[in-house]
Amino acid sequence: MPITPTEASAQAREICGLAPIVPVLVVHDVTHARPLAEALVAGGLPALEVTLRTPAALDVIAEMAKVEGGVVGAGTLVTPDDVTKAIEAGAKFGVSPGATDPLLDACEAQGLPLLPGAATASEAMALLARGYDMLKFFPAEASGGAPALKAIGAPLPQISFCPTGGVSPKNAATYLSLSNVVCAGGSWVAPSDLVKAGDWAAITSLAKEASQLARA
């Protein structure tokens, strides 16, 4: 069912509001999908972004979509074909490093709430003009970090962000203290060594710590 940009942003904002951190997941082995999702949800991080960076990604989304309490999205959406495949796999929202008209058109036509990426005021203004007011700030640290995002927010207070890219336990609280930040995306809650080892208890512990981070 088609969705408008305003509806897409409202739904994306609601998903972003579920927890202060959205795990950004690069999963290579589909057998890790369900226990990883269960560990993160148990730790208080229900919104999960599975990046389309591995051959297993779509199968991982399909498995994670079965986990009760989780809301699974597809990250690194670049083309309309990515959108179609993500929806077929069970993704409930999408995340993109940037935004193009073909990508936005595809998400709107197929009813997928999208968190489109922006790194500059001009990019953010272009998306706002189309109707998007909940955006991904990417790559966050490389684009100037929290000071840059705060500066962008001064003239554009109507836009909210999920900074991703270089967000870590050391700087997450600084990002979350900004009035224009709803949540942040981070990969540290599911480090590859713990995933490979199947140490789900440790991942749940990291998720619990992240879920307690305070937001503005």
From TrEMBL:
PANTHER family: 2-DEHYDRO-3-DEOXY-6-PHOSPHOGALACTONATE ALDOLASE-RELATED (PTHR30246:SF1), 2-KETO-3-DEOXY-6-PHOSPHOGLUCONATE ALDOLASE (PTHR30246). Its EC number is 4.1.2.14. Pfam families: Aldolase. It catalyses: 2-dehydro-3-deoxy-6-phospho-D-gluconate = D-glyceraldehyde 3-phosphate + pyruvate. Homotrimer. InterPro entries: Aldlse_KDPG_KHG (IPR000887), Aldolase_TIM (IPR013785), KDPG/KHG_AS_1 (IPR031337), KDPG/KHG_AS_2 (IPR031338). GO terms for molecular function: 2-dehydro-3-deoxy-phosphogluconate aldolase activity. Transmembrane segments: none annotated. Keywords: Carbohydrate metabolism, Lyase, Schiff base. This is 2-dehydro-3-deoxy-phosphogluconate aldolase. Gene3D superfamilies: Aldolase class I. Pathway: Carbohydrate acid metabolism; 2-dehydro-3-deoxy-D-gluconate degradation; D-glyceraldehyde 3-phosphate and pyruvate from 2-dehydro-3-deoxy-D-gluconate: step 2/2.
